[in-house]
Design goal:
- Its main location: membrane.
- It catalyses: ATP + protein L-histidine = ADP + protein N-phospho-L-histidine.
- It comes from Ohessyouella blattaphilus.
- Pfam families: HATPase_c, HisKA.
- The protein is an alpha+beta fold and 493 residues long.
- The chain folds into four domains: 89 residues, no CATH class; 118 residues, 2-Layer Sandwich (Beta-Lactamase), CATH 3.30.450.20; 86 residues, Signal transduction histidine kinase, dimerisation/phosphotransfer (DHp) domain (Helix Hairpins, Orthogonal Bundle), CATH 1.10.287; 156 residues, Histidine kinase-like ATPase, C-terminal domain (Heat Shock Protein 90), CATH 3.30.565.10.
- Helix content is 56%, strand content 16%.
- It contains ten helices and twelve strands.
- It has a five-stranded antiparallel β-sheet. A five-stranded mixed β-sheet has the order 7-9-10-12-11, covered by helices on one side. A two-stranded antiparallel sheet has the order 6-8.
- Helix 5 runs parallel beside helix 6.
- The chain is rod-shaped.
- The N terminus is likely disordered.
Length: 493
Amino acid sequence: MIRNTFTRSGEWVIISGVKKYLHFKTLKSLRVHLVLIILLVGIIPTLIMQKVLIRNYESRAVEVRTAEVQNQCTILCNQIAEANFLKDPNGEVLQSELSQLANIYSGRIMVVNDEFAVVFDTYDLDRGRVIISESVSKASAGNSATFYDAENKYIEISSPIYDSNKKEVLGVMLTSVSTNAIAETMSILEGVTEVLIIIMTVVIALIAFLIGSKVVRPFRRITDSIEAVTEGFDDDYLHENAYEETEVLSVAFNKMLGRMKVLDDSRQEFVANVSHELKTPLTSMKVLADSLLAQEDVPPELYREFMQDLSEEIDRENIVINDLLTLVKLDKTNPHLTIEGQNINEMLERILKRLRPVAAERNIELVFESYGPVMAEVDEIKLVLAFSNLIENGIKYNHDNGWVKVTLDADHKWFTVIISDSGIGIPEEEGERIFERFYRVDKSRSGEISGTGLGLSIARSAVLLHRGAIKVQGNDDGGTDFNVRIPLTYIAI
């Protein structure tokens, strides 16, 4: 029994969760939003028009009914004055006309004299009583007054009764007429318009659904293309030009897809290069070891020579592994940075002092030019690694008797280091790829110049960690300029 209770409870929780999820997903649907917007845009004006139409009809109908009754009242007021009905209200002709008017409009007529006493009442209820009201007072002063009571459905008209000279007000004719006929007509109009609104709602809903389906169709095709990418790169690029927005989205998607393909190719090339760089020293060590094992009574001189070669291959392997480990550390999502205020001038001078012996072997001149002292918040170890790699590359890929120039400048927000050389240069089309790991511009000369092909990648990663930027371009001397731009104040994100 308990198990069944828990089972039903679990099913209810699951069903409730699914309903909430579907409800949430439905509310986030672009199609639903479009349908709702179109429905609101179509229905709200219709409802407003319905109310306006009915109110205008009511106002116009009351105005016409009031004008009709006022005309009749004016005629009867003249007859009352001429027949001296206020003094002798027993005239059967006038009584009959007053009663007939009251019956026609389903209302009530009272005649009030100048002392506010009721001399005639078609209901015969208030005869002889005194009536003092705002409308009667206005009419006694010679001003006709009308009042419409929509809640109780009647119109009240107070008409002054003048003497034959139209100078003195002798009394007031107070007329109340029913507006039930107007109310019934309004009810019929409301019913008809409500039916029309329901029909229009259904039609608008169908149109909105069709429009919504058509509008979201291009996005569905974009979604299908994106889902295809998750299953494996698709060779077909997206060309969805139904709307300006989908065209922009298609362009952005194609750029992303192209970038992903480039990254995938780069990753495959990186794996192949890593395998090659690690396998080459191992192969050499294997050959040397097998040579030693294949010989008996190896002379000490030859044994020492082979051991020297093995040591060099191990050093080469160690350099590659250390560079790879450095890249792994720099590529971490949240790498550890030791940010401290550093004198950039002194940092660059220390790097150049350390590399001058290397440059002197090929008679390459190292020049440092600064436009002023620069203090910045940086990680000294990582930034020294970046600038060392860039300057060392300028020495490696240079001509004998050449030069490498380091220029330091700063403004209120950034400091800039430009490393220029008179070396072999980099083709413009290769500019975007030189920061890829193990990438060499001149494959044929990669064996002539020592290195792992990871230096520029390490330098770029270190610069990016400081929220900086690095760019490369050729210079007028056929060499290369590396432009590094780093903020003076480190801002953690």
